[in-house]
Amino acid sequence: MNGFERRRAQKKKDILEAALVLFMEYGVQKPSIAEIAQKAGVSQVTIYNYFESKHNLAHEVFLYYLDKMSEEFKEILLSELDFPEKVKRLIFRKKEAAQEMHEDLYLYIMREYTTSPGHLREIFQEKTLPNLFSLFNQGKEQGYVDPNLSNEAILFFMHALYEYLQREEVYSNVLPMTEDIMKLIFYGIAGKRE
């Protein structure tokens, strides 16, 4: 990548980061292109040159956010931490993300997730599931996950959850339960056992 391409990629990332920060705090509707441009240190014209419209920018922020969350998950997974600590960090990160996110942005993300699931499905199939299997296999090896629990059963459960979360009456009410859902995924109904 030459210098021009690097600067262009950095400028696009700066715009996405600025928009994400504003969307997290105020939702998608409230921040104007002018406010996003000011926060990113670019002109409004630059934003339109890169994204054409606020709707396209919001969609790109959605994809950027998903990729960012996927990378954070992978960093935790590849760390030297033991299984319980990795699970704690994943649960804490989910709770933290849910608390940081403006409800309007969350609803926008879930609408995008259900109406154009291509990128999300790709991340889920190609990154999230293999990473979860790796995490659960590590938990089995360390004695924290039942070694008789098949990856097929885990896959069935994750797909059922994935499909259920695509329903508007579900995703519009799930944000306050994010931490509980993560605990159910990792510890089940019986809860954490020492």
Automatic annotation (TrEMBL):
One Pfam family named in its UniProt record: TetR_N
Coiled-coil spans in chain: none
Keywords: DNA-binding
Domain HTH tetR-type, residue spans: 9-69
InterPro entries: Homeodomain-like_sf (IPR009057), HTH-type_Tx_Regulator (IPR050624), HTH_TetR (IPR001647)
Record-annotated DNA-binding residue ranges: 32-51
Gene Ontology molecular function terms on file: DNA binding
PANTHER family membership: ACREF/ENVCD OPERON REPRESSOR-RELATED, TRANSCRIPTIONAL REGULATOR, TETR FAMILY
Protein name: TetR family transcriptional regulator
Organism in which the protein naturally occurs: Xylanibacillus composti
